[in-house]
Structure formats: C-alpha cells, structure tokens
Design brief:
single chain, alpha+beta, four-stranded antiparallel beta sheet, 1 helix, 37% helix
Length: 76
C-alpha cells in the first residue's frame, strides 16, 4: 500500500480543528487552527536545531497541502 505524504484528519470531538497528518519522517499531526504539532518521533537535544527548521517547513508544507485540497473540493 502506498500512503500519501499528507492526510487530512477529522474528529467529531474536535469540530473546529483542522488536522493534517504527515506520514513520512519526521511523522507528526498538526492542528492548523492552532499551529500545534504532535510529533510521533523521539528527538535528542542535538536534534533541536534541525527540528526548529523542520517545524517551520512542516507547517508551511501542511498548510499548502490543506489549501490545495480545499481548492480541489471547491472546484467540484
């Protein structure tokens, strides 16, 4: 099975949340309404500098993915 790099998640108890799941390393879920990230990976102290730049990149990519998907739905 091939899993896409990003998935959109939904949950009835979090009706206002917009979850985007990143399935490749480093794996995470982001709530775009709050820019909160939950990482599925463990990171060492030495990884923190790289993680900071990855986080900024991850938020940008997740937001672009979400905007692209929503635009596709609006075209239908």
């Amino acid at each position: 099975m091939t899993i896409p790099k990003f998935l959109i998640g939904d949950h009835s108890e979090h009706g206002d949340a917009i979850f985007v799941i990143h399935t490749e390393f480093p794996r995470f879920i982001i709530d775009l309404t709050k820019d909160e990230i939950e990482w599925f990976e463990e990171f060492d102290k030495q990884d923190e500098a790289e993680l900071a730049s990855e986080t900024e990149n991850a938020i940008k990519e997740a937001t672009e993915f979400y905007d692209s998907e929503i635009a596709k739905y609006e075209q239908e």
